[in-house]
Amino acid sequence: MKRLLSAVVLAGAFVGISEAQSAFRFNAAGDEIIVNRESHWRNWVYQNNLVREVRSPMDSTGLFDFTFRGIKPKYFPDLQNYVLDRDEFSYVDDVRFRGQNATIVGQVQALSNDAAASRVGDGDVNTYWQPAESDFNSQGLRNWQVLIDLGRTVFSDSIVVQFPPLESGGSQIVPVVPADADAMSNLTAELQAAIAAFSRLNTLTGVIAPVDLLDDEGTVIVAVGDTVVGAGQSLPGSISGVRRLNELGISAVEVEGAEDAGDAPKLFAVEVSMGKQAGDTSSKNYRFDVVGRASVSGNQRRFVFPLVPLDWADANLDGSPDFPGTFVHFVRVTIFDSDFDTKELLGEGELGQIAYDSLPLERRGLRVYQRLTAGGFVKRISPVIDDLGDTLLTAERVHTDLPASEQGPIRFFKRELPRISEVEVWGPGTNVAYRPERHGGAAYEDGGNGTPLLSVDGVYLTKWYGNAWDLKYSSGYAGHDQLVCCTMWLDLGVTFWIDHVVLGMVTTRETSTEGSIFGWHLQGSDGTVLRALDLQTPEDFIQLESGLAWTDLVSELYKDNNTPRVRMMEENFSLRKLRFFQQRNDDPTGARSGAYSAPGHFNEVQMFGRGYPAETNFTSPEIVMLPGVSSAEAADVRERRVLSQIHWEAEAIVREVDEFTGQVIERAEPLSQHPEVALQIQTRSSDTIDSLFTYYLITGIGTKSEKSFLIDLVEYEGILQLWENYNAWNSLQETEIFTLRAHSNGDDDGDGLINEDPIDGIDNDGDRRIDEDGVAGDIGGPQLLRGPGRVTITKHARKRDDDGDGAQDEDPIDGIDNDGDNLIDEDGKKVAKPRQESSELITPFFAGWSAWSEPYTPTLGENRASITSPSPRKFLQIRLSIVSEDPEVTVRVSALRVELAPPISTDLAGELALLTDEGMTRPLSDLIPTRLDYGPPLGIEPLRQTPYVFFVRAAGPDPNAPEASGGFDQLLLLTPSRARPTGVRLGRVTVEDPSGSTSAADRLAVTTTFDRAYLPVSGDSLFADSDGNQILVRATVDSLQVSFPQAVNIGFPGAENALIELQFETKTLKAGSEFLALVRNSTSTGLFQRVESEGRDATELVDSGTARPTVLAVNRLIDEINIPAVFTPNGDGVNDRLDIEFTVLTIRDDRPVEVTIFDLSGRRVANASAASGMDQTQSGTVNFSWDGASSTGDLVPPGIYIARVKLETDSEDIEVVQVVNVVY
């Protein structure tokens, strides 16, 4: 049976779509869509711009800063304390909670005083953890332990343990910066951490220059007595700021602090765990390694523990690890010793009492009571304890009860306050490879059997098994179309700036080399495409191997790991843009290629860099452009909106570090001042909501083991049929008796109806009997074989004659009369109740989207542009891309605004056609053209003047919008190259909608009638009809604009549309060139409405359905080359530049093009400059120029030179050369 769940799921899905409206708002008039709130941006979607099925919620990507000022990409630093953001990460702990699917969030815990544990990771040295009072004894000392769970595995080079500062107004040592250091990366991790800690402090009284500081020319840049840092201000945190204090001879400064913040523990140890199990795989504990011990003495309150790899990492076999640092998931700090109540003797007697009483209660330690012996010695008094261990008399009471002559001096001690302020885990910044699915990323292993995402999930024990790879497993090898094993591809979903990659491998036995890869193959790509990609899902990543431009990221050290068998690797390279990665366990010997017996364990791959992401893409949810209309309602609403203009507010964000204070500054500047960064805004539109059907098999219904499995439609329908058969059998009566009579004009079958089932071979009344009740004289029905009389049918049972005809099980339940007795399903077997059910999930989704528009650019210096996506439409989607060539610069988007308008025509359809020979010979004034006059735009010869016709069919304006009632009086046709208009016809066309269709896209043109024709009369733009009525047709380099004296599309009945025929001649350079038509009312403020052409029917005179001509393939790609044979770059202003012009044919995508000048020896002399400033081109006219200067800037000597035009294509490089004479 079909579960009723499906209807609920359908309704819920539409509600989910409707909630997407929180990603924008309408203005009060309902004619603008506005995105300008933090909550709006959080409800957008991070969409993978190459893999259509991969997307992530914006709010969970970790990529963006959302504020009231707008949205911008986050900056990823190259130094980070991983403790501070621990609660933003989580993992499934399958070691301590095996089989429980327990998700653990990063946290700080303590065995004692757990409530205060989080203070050691709050970034504030003035807060602290200390053991609970109940544990302040030798037994409780075992609980003086803090455990930091970072929520994921990180790569760290040092751990810092910070204890409370000594006292208020204490001196802080100024870090000393080496003279040759000019960047933080030149400093040790310890010194970087020290400067970071120094910058978090504030001066107590200010820092005054003790001497003059001179520059190299002897000028005083800081005078003695100048205030270097004001009182209460932050200390510098940059190299230059700290170095200035060094140059002034300032070695320490007084800083603010808390009174008596506590003590550093007497003895402690630091342990870390990478997240590996202790012992074998059955262990439920993590393995910890001691990385540092310290006994506190003097005033040291800050301890730095450098880290080294905690697994084998000596690939060059020199006895030392190849790099510093290690993977870390847990950090444990344990205090082993304490002075408890006797940290410091304050004194004895009255002076000791005074010192003791001056302390806060928490600092008052032990008071030792003493008595004087007869011999003049001093003896400590102990309390009086009974046999049960109860205190009868305290030492103080015993002392008080002694005679004054026997009372010895009381000794007073200061109490220890062991506290930990901060535990810091430092490393090379954010791991940008962590769980890429959070921000539209994905991974795939060829064959689909592996789990490559486990290598980037932040859990050290999970892994991708990389079987040994060999060349024979590459796509295309020996005729294979797909890979068969051993490669994983990773798409981060974002293009990051990366310069550092680490790999960790885990073995199940510490003494073995199991898990080590044979050689590390890791290539990266910024997404540069070499071959066209069609990536629907991650399963299509196989195309990446040959489709992208790859760069090798691994040095020779790690390409052969057969001998060292290390399990930790690190690679550093120059900072670069990377998004895609291809990884393999590559055995250079080839001995184990394809081996499944000893796979390499890719447990954790981490990647680091710095800067704002180089490219991010985010998309609005599907926007219903009708205020107050939900997605579900919009499917049945005919109202639509025209997309007018899009406005945006954005600015460049430049990140800098203040030269003196070291504070990070993000400065906002006009986007126009930063060509290195770009904001790309695109739109697409749709009218369609479709439904996606998903089918499930359900087992264990109503039990704890109920499960569902995805199945196909055939299996789903099969299960439905099983339930239908069972329900039909279950509804049968145990015994059914009825009487049949010979056909008459009465009730022949006793059901109270007359003549309801005549002789026609059909069960007309649904009683599972055929032709049993007809009119007098009929012969047929069950009576034909059985004769009139009583019929008894029992409920189906196996191997039984249920209908008394002598046969068994001959007519089972299938809705058919199998035995020809005119009874249906009357004798079958018992039908068992199915053990499975099926479920149908109906998911509504938006379909029929137009292609994404070209990115919008500012108009007349303003951040606005006319929207080019098809409209009118019901649904809109907006995509934003932020692209940066500088890791320190990005874009912040504050607001978007989309202007909407009612359609000036509710249906605009366009068709491009060729004028045939018959059409060329027919005068334009002949208003009765035929289908023979026009042909589809096929087989166009490039560069040839071709006679075209563009038809526009236009319905009337929106009748519910008075502001649109004027219709349109202008037509704008954008052409790929300059066009010459030859005539215009105006008329009307009757239309009809196919049966069952309500979509304007399906509308058909039936009969065309022309009323008038306009021919050129004078000049270049005036056209007139036979009555002298005139129109203007203006031609520009890329358009034709037709202006009519009155509206074209008003006054027509519902079944008629206006029709415009525009005839013109132009050249076509490439296939796919679109002739885009738009209309508007000249009295409006520039609002154009687009004419839709693809698949539309404008007139029955031609069956084109397109606005894109098909161009004949030609052997030549470069034509119409114009390079002057002689030029004279002598500075007289005449013929000083060599202007080079040529035409590129049939190239649809941008391809590299260059013009190079050579001398006769073949030596390159110079490169000509492209007029567009771009080194790529599509089909069209291309212009270059050369000023006669060589690459060094000097004028070349007179003589003969060679100019070479070079165009790179997928298959080959096309070159054309010509001689040029330089004359002075």
Question: What can be said about this structure in brief?
Answer:
By secondary structure, the chain is mainly beta. It is built from eleven helices and 74 strands. It starts with a helix and ends with a strand.
Describe this structure in words.
Helix content is 7%, strand content 36%. It is mainly beta. The chain has 7 domains: 5-74 and 618-690 and 847-901; 90-164 and 263-337, Galactose-binding domain-like (Jelly Rolls); 193-254, no CATH class; 344-414, no CATH class; 433-610, Jelly Rolls (Sandwich); 908-1090, Immunoglobulin-like; 1118-1222, Immunoglobulin-like (Sandwich). It has a 12-stranded antiparallel β-sheet with strand order 54-53-55-62-57-58-59-60-61-56-63-64. Strands 31, 33, 34, 35, 36, 37 and 39 form a 7-stranded mixed β-sheet that branches. The longest helix is centred in the middle third of the chain and has 18 residues, at 713-730. The chain is globular, with a radius of gyration of 42 Å. Residues 1-19 and 476-483 have low confidence and may be disordered.
How confident is the prediction overall: mean pLDDT?
87
What is the overall number of helices?
11
Distance between the termini: 93 Å
Rg (CA only): 42 Å
* Strand neighbour order, sheet with most strands: 54-53-55-62-57-58-59-60-61-56-63-64
The tally of strands reads 74
The dominant shape is globular
Poorly predicted segments: 1-19, 476-483
Strand percentage, roughly?
35-45%
Query: How many separate structural domains?
Result: 7
Structural class: mainly beta
The share of residues in helices is: under 10%
Largest sheet: 12 strands, antiparallel
